[in-house]
Amino acid sequence: SACLVGSEMCIRDSYDMGAPIVKEKDPMSLVIMLGAFLAACILEINVVYIVIVCGLIGLVRTLLSKRRSGK
Q: Which CA distances in Å does 58 have to 3, 13, 48, 50, 70?
């Protein structure tokens, strides 16, 4: 019973975190979110590595965005 409650909370929290990304409708953000989910749940990759890779992707996207805008 406690496991079921924990699972429900995990699903609800995942939805709460992912909903703004889906509403944003940025294809790259959706790919990153799906990739992180698959890496963690299907491939069982350590979450620390997933966070590091996502941070690096965010850094690259930010730098490219600034370069395109000329800043």
A: 34, 22, 15, 12, 18
